[in-house]
Amino acid sequence: MQDPQYRDFQNRLQRVAELHRSGRAFEAADAPHSGTRPRLALHLPLWRSLGVMAATVTLVKVAILVQIGAPAYAERLAQAKSRTPVERAAAAIMQVDPATGWVARRVSALLDRGR
Fold this sequence. Notes:
Layout: H1 4-22, H2 46-68, H3 70-81, H4 85-93, H5 98-113
Helix pairs in contact: 2-3, 2-5, 3-4
Transmembrane segments: 50-74
Keywords: Membrane, Transmembrane, Transmembrane helix
């Protein structure tokens, strides 16, 4: 007959081993390194990552556009287009697209109402 505490202990060891194999186990600082790397906590599909990046760039463009205004924004883009290749690429990315213009107009209208 097996001791119930021993069976519980063995079950716990098995769960810890499964967690360790899956990369979710906690490793204490003084424990010997098992040679496995911890997994990256953030697993986003490529399309979702690109969508998040596009939304972030759009929001940055909106914030700049609302802050400095459309004429100053267009002037700065024109200046950047005549500089280095990196600045020309940045100017191409920072062009006002329909989504940016629409959101900027809505945000400007909301800010004007608040005054």
